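If you are new to this repository, start here. Below is one unmodified record pulled from the training split, so you can see the exact layout before writing a loader.
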Amino acid sequence: MPRVNPDILVWARETAGLAQDEAARKLSISEDRLKAMEEGEHPPTHRQLTAISEKYRRPLVTFYLPRRPLARNFGQDFRTLPRDHEPVHDALVSALLRDIQARQQLVRAAMEEADEAVRLDFVASADADIGLNRLVEQINEKIGYPISEYRAQRTVGDAFALLRDRVERSGVFVVLMGNLGTHHTDIDVKVFRGFALADEYAPFIVINEKDSRAAWSFTLLHELVHIWLGQTGISGYDSGVEIEKFCDAVASRILLDPRELFELDLPHNAPTEVAAALITAFANSRKISRKMVAYNLLLQGLINVALYRTLAALFDAERSAKRVEEEREGGPSYYIVKRHRVGHALLDFTRRMIKGGVLSTPRAGKVLGVKPTSVSQLVGLGND
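And here is the target side for that same chain:
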């Protein structure tokens, strides 16, 4: 009978972002017992290994491997991380990206089996030298972005849904995902804002749903620029990386003509509360985030760095407080929430592949991130 590899136990714990004492508490065993397992003195029981598999977010078979798996390539890391970010978030982000890459691979394999794999000509069709205005034109033309219709939507959520629909029609799957299935694994937006998988047949964009709803459209467009540039990678906030600044500039330009900023007519040396109120009204009328407006005001020299930082901190704090309040109030049913997170494109694709016999229910569950028993109701197959 194969034996558990002690070195894999150490690797799995470390990549889960857990110190030995933290892991022992989560597993409800003593630190000495865990240390003995990792040194190969006392192998874990089946029950203990099952718990380890769950807490470390690794399949059981992983612990019998002869050596540590090679690190998976998640593309480029475009982030500038805050100094105080917690290492556990790195492990959560890695687990989330593994999940999304596995879904993307299943989708592409299903496309190929169903003879539906069609190369998308816009993926990797440009580079940063193309210039901001030209790339804005290309993206607007491809997705048919209707700025007047976007701003006419009742809420920022409705505006995002409109933009998401246009992007998904172009062939990109857009998923909202901010944790690994429970609020205990929520990932801070300062660590993970979005992720782009620039596959030429089945590109994916992931947006951290823990961010404010007003910021989702900006992140969607930011990651879409990465798709256009053929870049797979993870994005954060306030990055110092030049390509991130370029993606921000393109996304901002699609959502807002910088000449509109002068309509704000901010008083010179306006107090923070006055600037915040004016920016809030301006942003709400255009269904965009206040932080994006503040950043563009800074770029245009209409506010100074000190005021921008104060406003950004204020908006971040208010965003966090609002998210907590929304979670306390509860919300729609499980299936409504799940459908919203997965998106119409992935739901429609999965439904079609199930009906065509290309995707089994268990594989469809992996594509959608749900248990196999939930697939039929989620995609609306009923008893078909």
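Two things worth knowing about this chain: The mean pLDDT is 89. Strands lie at 76-77, 173-176, 194-197, 204-207, 233-235.
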